[in-house]
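A quick aside before the break. I want you to see a complete sequence-to-structure record at least once, exactly as it would be stored in a machine-readable document. Don't worry about memorizing anything.
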Amino acid sequence: MYTEAPSESTGAGGAPKLAAPRMQPGLKSRLRTLASRALPRSVLTYRGVGDARRVALTFDDGPHEMTLAYLDLLERFGARATFFVVGNQCIGRSEILRRIVERRHEVAGHGFSHRAFPKMGIGPLHDELQRTTALLPPERATPRRLVRPPYGATSVRSLAVCAAAGYTTVMWSRDSDDCRTQAPDEIVARVAPADLRPGEIVLLHEGQSWTLAALPRILEALANAGWKAVTVGEILAP
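That is the input. The structure line, written in C-alpha cells, reads:
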C-alpha cells in the first residue's frame, strides 16, 4: 500500500498539512509491491510503455480555483496532462472540467469523497466510482476508464472491484513529493529530466501554489531535454 497525502488537508490556523516524511518500505510492503506489479496492466499500472521520451504528468485532488492557471502553463509549453479529480470537488465546477477537456487534457476519477479505497466495502467503493464518473464530461477524451486511488492506497479487494467495474488503477513511477515539501526547487529537482526514464507517470497535485510555481520550470526543462508530456491514456497505448 502506498500513501499519498491529500493536498487539501490543513493543520492549525488553516496552514497546509504536509504528508509525513517518506519511510523506507518494510519487507511486507516490498512483497506487496512485487505482487501488485505482477498484475495485468489493465488492472494496475505504474508506468507507460515504449522507449520514446514521453512522460505523463498527473495532477490529483482537483478541480480547484487554481486549475485554470495550471491549464495556461501546460498550454504555453504544448504539454498535455491527466487530471485525477475528486467527485465532491467537481460539484458546481463543471465549467472547469469542460475547460480541461477542451484543451485536450484527460480527466479521470480520484474517488468521490477521497476516502481510502481499502477502507470501503464493495458496494460503497463501486458507488464512489460511479458517482465520480457521472460528474465527468462525456467527452473527457479518456481512451480507457482510469482511476487513481486516494492516498495511493490499494488492496486486492479494491483492485478487483475497480477492475470488475472496468477501471484501470493508475499509480505512479515518479513522486514529485509536492505533498511533503512546499519548496518549488525540491519539486523541480524530483522531476529533473536527467533522472527520468521513458514512460514515467509523475504524481503532482492541484490547488498548491508551490506546485504551480514549480510547474513552468518542470515543463521548460522537459521541453529543452526533448521530452514530450502526454496523457496517461497516451502513455499506456502500445
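Two observations worth writing down. The beta strands are 44-45, 54-62, 82-85, 106-109, 146-147, 168-170, 174-175, 200-205, 228-230. Residues 1-15 have pLDDT under 50 and may be disordered. We'll return to this after the break.
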